[in-house]
């Protein structure tokens, strides 16, 4: 029964694929390499199915037909790949196809040896076992290629190859299951062999539908996918080698076969564990891979992502910026170490940073007078091995310092040029696997060097900007302090003038000493504010008794000028006493300066809705509306001779910092009224609560 199913199923598959071959051959389309290879693969599949139906599944002609069928489909995939948009694929992909083709050729050779060794059961068993392993290996490799061909195809054209790739995956998945079960059970599965033909017959309509949907497919190849594919093939080849050698040792080893197998497996495992983690071995492998398997040395997208990640890695645990600059350049060529030289204020190159290179001795004068002009004019990347061998032309010998060429570990110098200005030089140590720089290395280093130069220039600009901001902050702080000093000088001048008239008054002497002490304390506070190490911050607003604060200010100022107070309500405001004292100090001093001698100024405080209004009133010359609107609160604008124009600006800034504001009313010839508005404290006194109830 199973034999009849096998014959009928394989015969049906042969007829379906033969019809599909004829239809595909007679289609009125442009005959390209993809269609020709497809016709050949379909014809070879029909031949295999017919040979199984006629001669049996285990006949030599059936085994040969299976091998050339797989060869046909492998050729179809290879032509499909070459004719797609990714036709400039690296050699690694070609190696995968060549490796699988060699496996098929080996399979044909091994199958042909089975009748030759018919007289030796051991050799027949060994040959059949090897043929089975080769079939398993090919099925695995073919499935990897099918997956990669689909995954690397263009998204917009992936639908066109979905059906043929699914058909091939079904064919080789069935084969892999068949050979794996045979390997595990040590006998061929008659049932699976019988159903192989009907399964192939079911695949034929799917291939016919795929051929009707499209005549060409576009493939785009990824370098990383190709590398992974080659890695899988390499691993499979390694396992295959171990299996074949271990089997051979078992057959020819006699009594010591087991010991030979264990010794071989142990030795190969130890060799793999020793070589694979080795940095030198990985560097050698990477160089050989790039040289022999890929058209381009670098995966530019991956290199650029790695480069930008290294340069821009944030966080406190990352290396300093200049050290990351060296590492970003060194990683391009797998250099283990490097240093960065940058121009100082005089334009001479000095050591800026090291990365893994503590042994190189860099003199204080790290360049000659011609080094910087040479690199700015040419932008040459110096390869020191070629320079030592006098193989470099158009290089000014005097531009390269002797300490660079004398150190045997110096390998390359990469100038960092930004808009024809040398931002620095990265000196690279010799890589683990010594090699010469080719055109791709030079292009990558040149582009990366320009990018790094822009980063360095931006960092230097940020440093200059930060320095300018610190100077600006210092100047701003100095302007405020100079204004406060001017006020103190004015107060001391008034005190000295009044002392001439009241020096003999003991009460005046006591007040004068208190005023001098207060002025000295304020000047010490100004010096502290001027210091860049002063980190003190103003206190947060808190409930402050306004009446007590104003009485204290009046007591301090009454020796300088007459101050009247018509109304000071007992209110509580949310404020910082020090800042209120500073604001009123500015306003009172401005009022004193604006008032005629002997004309008192007024200081009042009253409630206004949910705020406290503190008024400073003078009867001076007043200000124009235009001045108040456009210049009053602008720094360095003043209506007084010798004025700094800072007082009103600073007073308003301090008021806003306490959630308050500063209002002004003035009229030319009638004086000015400045009103400090502060928020009323939420916790009111008992008298205020009583007043609130009465209101």
Automatic annotation (TrEMBL):
Q: Its Enzyme Commission number?
A: 2.7.13.3
Q: Which GO terms describe its molecular function?
A: protein histidine kinase activity
Bilayer-crossing residues are: 6-25, 37-61, 67-83, 95-117, 129-151, 163-183, 195-212, 232-253, 259-279
Q: Entry's InterPro entries?
A: GAF-like_dom_sf (IPR029016), HATPase_C_sf (IPR036890), HATPase_dom (IPR003594), His_kinase_dom (IPR005467), HisK_dim/P_dom (IPR003661), Sig_transdc_His_kin-like_C (IPR004358), XrtA/PrsK (IPR014265)
**Domain of life, source organism:** Bacteria
Per its record, the protein catalyses: ATP + protein L-histidine = ADP + protein N-phospho-L-histidine
Which keywords appear in this protein's UniProt record, sorted alphabetically?
ATP-binding, Kinase, Membrane, Nucleotide-binding, Phosphoprotein, Transferase, Transmembrane, Transmembrane helix, Two-component regulatory system
Histidine kinase domain: which residues?
480-682
Q: What is this protein called?
A: histidine kinase
């Amino acid at each position: 029964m199973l034999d009849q199913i096998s014959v009928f199923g394989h015969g049906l598959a042969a007829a379906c694929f033969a019809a599909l071959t004829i239809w595909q051959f007679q289609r009125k389309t442009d005959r390209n390499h993809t269609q020709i290879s497809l016709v050949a693969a379909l014809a070879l599949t029909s031949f295999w199915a017919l040979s199984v139906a006629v001669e049996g599944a285990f006949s030599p002609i059936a085994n040969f037909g299976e091998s050339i069928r797989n060869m046909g489909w492998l050729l179809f995939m290879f032509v499909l790949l070459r004719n797609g948009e990714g036709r400039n694929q690296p050699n690694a992909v070609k190696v995968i196809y060549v490796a699988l083709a060699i496996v098929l050729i080996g399979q044909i050779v091994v199958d042909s040896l089975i009748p030759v060794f018919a007289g030796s059961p051991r050799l027949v068993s060994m040959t059949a076992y090897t043929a089975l392993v080769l079939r398993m290996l090919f099925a695995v490799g073919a499935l990897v290629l099918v997956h990669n061909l689909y995954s690397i195809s263009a998204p917009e054209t992936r639908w066109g190859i979905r059906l043929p790739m699914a058909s091939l995956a079904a064919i080789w998945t069935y084969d892999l299951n068949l050979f794996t079960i045979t390997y595990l059970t040590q006998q061929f599965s008659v049932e699976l062999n019988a159903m192989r033909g009907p399964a192939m017959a079911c695949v034929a309509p799917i291939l016919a539908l795929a051929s009707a949907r499209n005549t060409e497919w576009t493939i785009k190849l990824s370098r990383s996918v190709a590398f992974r594919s080659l890695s899988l093939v390499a691993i499979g080849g390694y396992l295959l080698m171990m299996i074949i050698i271990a089997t051979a040792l078992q057959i020819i080893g006699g009594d010591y076969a087991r010991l030979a197998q264990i010794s071989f497996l142990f030795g190969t495992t130890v060799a793999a564990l020793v070589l694979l983690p080795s940095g030198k071995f990985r560097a050698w492998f990477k160089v050989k891979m790039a040289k022999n398997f890929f058209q381009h040395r670098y995966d530019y997208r991956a290199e650029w992502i790695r480069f930008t990640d290294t340069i821009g890695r944030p966080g406190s645990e990352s290396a300093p910026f200049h050290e990351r600059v060296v590492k970003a350049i060194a990683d391009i060529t797998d250099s283990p170490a490097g240093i960065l030289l940058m121009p100082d204020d005089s334009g001479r190159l000095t050591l800026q940073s090291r990365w893994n290179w503590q042994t190189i001795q860099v003199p204080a004068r790290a360049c000659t007078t011609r080094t910087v002009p040479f690199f700015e004019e040419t932008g040459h990347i110096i390869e020191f091995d070629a320079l030592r061998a006098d193989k470099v032309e158009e290089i000014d010998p005097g531009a390269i310092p002797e300490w660079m060429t004398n150190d045997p570990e110096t390998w390359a110098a990469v100038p960092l040029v930004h808009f024809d200005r040398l931002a620095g030089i990265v000196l690279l140590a010799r890589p683990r696997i010594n090699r010469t720089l080719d055109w791709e290395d030079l292009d990558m280093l040149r582009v990366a060097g320009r990018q790094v130069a822009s980063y360095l220039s931006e960092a230097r600009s940020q440093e200059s900007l930060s320095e300018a901001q610190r100077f600006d902050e210092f100047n701003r702080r100095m302007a405020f302090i100079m204004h406060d000093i001017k006020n103190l000088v004015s107060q001391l001048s008034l005190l000295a003038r009044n002392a001439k008239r009241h020096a003999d008054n003991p009460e005046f002497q006591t007040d004068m000493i208190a005023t001098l002490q207060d002025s000295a304390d304020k000047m010490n506070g100004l010096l502290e504010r001027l210091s860049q190490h002063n980190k003190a911050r103003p206190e947060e607003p808190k409930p402050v008794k306004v009446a007590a604060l104003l009485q204290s200010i009046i007591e301090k100022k009454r020796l300088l000028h007459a101050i009247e107070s018509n109304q000071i309500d007992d209110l509580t405001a949310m404020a910082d006493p020090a800042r209120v004292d500073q604001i009123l100090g500015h306003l009172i001093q401005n009022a004193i300066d604006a008032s005629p001698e002997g004309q008192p100024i007024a200081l009042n405080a009253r409630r206004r809705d949910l705020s406290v209004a503190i008024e400073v009133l003078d009867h001076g010359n007043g200000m124009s509306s235009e001045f108040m609107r456009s210049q009053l609160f602008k720094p360095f604008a003043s209506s007084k001779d010798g004025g700094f124009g800072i007082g009103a600006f600073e007073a308003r800034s301090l008021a806003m910092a306490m959630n308050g504001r500063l209002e002004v009313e003035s009229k030319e010839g009638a004086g000015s009224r400045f009103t400090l508005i502060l928020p009323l404290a939420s916790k009111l006194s008992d008298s205020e609560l009583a007043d609130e109830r009465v209101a």
